[in-house]
Specification:
This protein is mainly alpha-helical. It is built from eleven helices and two strands; from the N terminus they run αααααααααααββ. The chain folds into two domains: 103 residues, Endonuclease Iii, domain 2 (Orthogonal Bundle), CATH 1.10.1670.10; 101 residues, Orthogonal Bundle (Endonuclease III, domain 1), CATH 1.10.340. The chain has a two-stranded antiparallel sheet with strand order 1-2. It is elongated, with a radius of gyration of 19 Å. Keywords: 4Fe-4S, DNA damage, DNA repair, DNA-binding, Endonuclease, Glycosidase, Hydrolase, Iron, Iron-sulfur, Lyase, Metal-binding, Nuclease. Its EC number is 4.2.99.18.
Length: 228
């Protein structure tokens, strides 16, 4: 039977401990070798799978190696170079704009503050958090992607719907030294077991503490709708 623990903090602690056991080596799945490549990869990954991004970036990173390369790029050619990435035309514009700002305002370096990163085209708080954590070893928040949104609501860790509100909720109950790992644990579990449409509750390490378990709950708390 899926039943949440007495408090959200206790629930979070139990979830984290179990998922660390289940996914001991989980980490970011995007492939990159420097901060610029990380920034570009994360921008491309918005509403696109990491697998598709990783298929696209090797050739892209050979062609565009510096912010100056992106700044000087022909936008139509850049869009063609990332064809297959969701919203490739828009993202080509973002990458060119990012290159221009990095050159003009940051001496060609990827900035290390939330404000400076979110001022870049196509960069929101989620993207900035990833770049800070994995590019600068700065952890000042929790990356809330679609997996984190779905699983934290299913598990009763939050009732919020907007990513920024979910992040605020989670930062209150998750130890700061787990903020970075938490996202990767959610992503790993979301991909392997707790999928969007047909979660495998019968083979879930969290089933007994999950109030959304299909084995005894009629409602998916992630969507608020009845299980199909």
């Amino acid at each position: 039977m899926g039943t949440s623990l007495d408090s959200r903090s206790a629930q979070a602690t139990e979830v984290i401990e179990r998922l660390h056991d289940a996914y001991p080596d989980t980490t970011i799945s995007l492939t990159f070798s420097n901060r610029l490549e990380l920034l570009v990869a994360v921008v491309l990954s918005a509403q696109c799978t990491d697998e598709r991004v990783n298929e696209t970036t090797p050739e892209l990173f050979e062609t565009y190696q510096t912010p100056e390369d992106y700044a000087a790029a022909d936008e139509e050619q850049l869009a063609e170079d990332i064809y297959g990435i969701t919203f490739h035309n828009n993202k080509a514009g973002y990458l060119k704009g990012i290159g221009e700002i990095l050159v003009e305002e940051h001496d060609g370096e990827v900035p290390d503050t939330m404000d400076a990163l979110t001022a870049l085209p196509g960069v929101g708080r989620k993207t900035a958090n990833v770049v800070l954590q994995h590019g600068h070893d700065v952890v000042e928040g929790i990356v809330v992607d679609t997996h984190v949104q779905r699983l934290t609501r299913r598990l009763g860790l939050t009732e919020e719907e907007r990513p920024d509100a979910i992040e605020d909720d989670l930062m209150e109950i998750i130890p700061e030294d787990e903020w970075q790992a938490f996202t990767h644990l959610m992503i790993s579990h979301g991909r392997a077991v707790c999928t969007a449409r047909n979660p495998d509750c019968g083979d879930c390490a969290l089933e007994d503490v999950c109030p959304s378990s299909k084995l005894d709950s009629d409602v998916d708390l992630a969507s608020g709708e009845a299980w199909e």
